[in-house]
Amino acid sequence: MINKSSFVIYYLIILLLSVSAFLRNSIWHSEMGLWQDVISKSPNNALALNNLCVSLYKETRYDDALNTCLKSLRLEPEDWSVHLNLWQVYKAKGMLNEAQEESKLGLKLQIGKPEAYSTLGYYLMEKGLIDEAIRIFKIALEKKPDLADSHYGLAVNLEKKGDKHSALMRYKEYLRFLNPEDPRFKEVEKRVKDIEKGE
Q: What is the three-state SS of the chain?
């Protein structure tokens, strides 16, 4: 029988080939100027550099994204998210050897952190392993109750299980962490209203 620790590590290794490293980051185009402004005032702000890297990646400005991620990495060499963001950028640029190395480094640093469980939960959800996904999302939230993505993932899987009451609570909790201007807000708000109507 596989214990919890072995189970998590096993599936996290699989994530190297199949799960986006950008689950943690919800950086939208409209925020690019914000991060650029922060960096202009504080050039050594590793978080802002990392978030700008994500924005540049989404704009397919891969060379700029790579340079920005590397700057962030020099400031925070043990930040797992920077390594996994570099993984995405290297993949986009066709630099597969570098991408593989960054994914290994990022995953090694991520294991045991709440975000790792959230990432694993989404992987299990994609594979249709609803019960396991629910269990992993709950572990993530035990470790970090304000992990918004885990509330959403848990809500979706609970709804799939037919537990709409619990799903409704999680959807509402997820909305607490979203800006009403976020496009996801209206979508989830609509789902909440539909469940309350019995749909």
A: CCCHHHHHHHHHHHHHHHCCHHHHCCCCHHHHHHHHHHHHHCCCCHHHHHHHHHHHHHCCCHHHHHHHHHHHHHHCCCCHHHHHHHHHHHHHCCCHHHHHHHHHHHHHHHCCCHHHHHHHHHHHHHCCCHHHHHHHHHHHHHHCCCCHHHHHHHHHHHHHCCCHHHHHHHHHHHHHCCCCCCHHHHHHHHHHHHHHCCC
Residue where a domain stops, chosen among 76, 110, 144: 110
Residue 193 carries which side chain, given as an amino acid letter? K
φ, ψ dihedrals at 77, nearest 5°: -65, -15
Same-domain pairing of 136 and 99: no
Identify the CA nearest to 140 among candidates 112, 166, 165.
112
The domain that holds 171 is classified in CATH as 1.25.40.10
Q: Are 105 and 134 in the same domain? A: no
Number of domains forming the structure of the chain: 2
User: Residues 98-156: pLDDT tens digits?
Assistant: 887 877 777 677 666 787 778 777 767 877 889 988 988 998 899 899 999 899 999 99
Range of the domain at 26: 4-110
Per-residue pLDDT tens for 140-186? 899 899 999 899 999 999 999 999 999 999 999 999 998 888 778 88
Identify whether 152 is part of a domain.
Answer: yes
